[in-house]
Amino acid sequence: MEELVLFEAEKKLMEIIWQVAPIESGKLVKIAGDSINWNKSTTYTVLRKLVAKGFVKNEDSVVSVLIPKEKVLISESNQIVEESFSGSLPMFVAAFFGNKKTLSDEDADALMKLIKENMRGGN
C-alpha cells in the first residue's frame, strides 16, 4: 500500500477540506482563517502542497478531495504498526489494550468480525 504522508499543517487543512469539499478556494481561506487562524498566504501555500501531493485538486478555484480521509487513516495506521511495532499487529493490539481494563461486548464483537473477515481463507 502506498504511504500517504501529511505534515501537521497539511493535516490541519485537509481536516477542513474533508468536512466541506467541494468548496471554492476563497471560502476555504475564510474557514481556515476563522478555525485555525491562518492568513490567505499560508492557506494557499499549504493548498498548493496538497495539490502537488495529489490529495486534492483545485480546478476553477474549486477545491475537491482526491484521497478520502479513510485511506489516509489506514496508511497512517499501517505506518505506525510497521515503525513502532516491527509490523506486528498483535504487539500493536497489546499496547493499545495496555491502558484499558475492559472491552465492551459491542467492541469485542466488532473486532472478532474484522478478524474473521480478514483471515486468510476467509473463515
Radius of gyration: 19 Å
List low-confidence stretches: none
Enter the CATH topology name of the largest domain: Arc Repressor Mutant, subunit A
Question: Helical proportion?
Answer: 55-70%
User: Span from first to last CA?
Assistant: 24 Å
Number of E strands = 3
Helix-strand makeup class: mainly alpha
Overall number of domains: 2
Arithmetic mean of pLDDT: 90
Largest sheet: 3 strands, antiparallel
Strand content: 5-15%
In what order do the strands lie side by side in the largest sheet? 1-3-2
Shape summary: elongated
The total of helices stands at 6
Order of helices and strands: HEHHEEHHH
Give the name of the CATH superfamily of the largest domain: Winged helix-like DNA-binding domain superfamily/Winged helix DNA-binding domain
CATH class of the largest domain: Mainly Alpha
Which architecture of the largest domain does the CATH hierarchy give at level 2? Orthogonal Bundle
Describe this structure in words.
- This protein has 2 domains: 8-69, Arc Repressor Mutant, subunit A; 88-123, no CATH class.
- It has helices at 8-20, 25-36, 40-53, 69-85, 89-97, 105-118, and strands at residues 23-24, 56-59, 62-65.
- The model has no long low-confidence stretch (mean pLDDT 90).
- The relative contact order is 0.12.
- The protein is mainly α.
- Helix 1 (8-20) packs across helix 2 (25-36).
- It is elongated.
- The chain contains 6 helices and 3 strands.
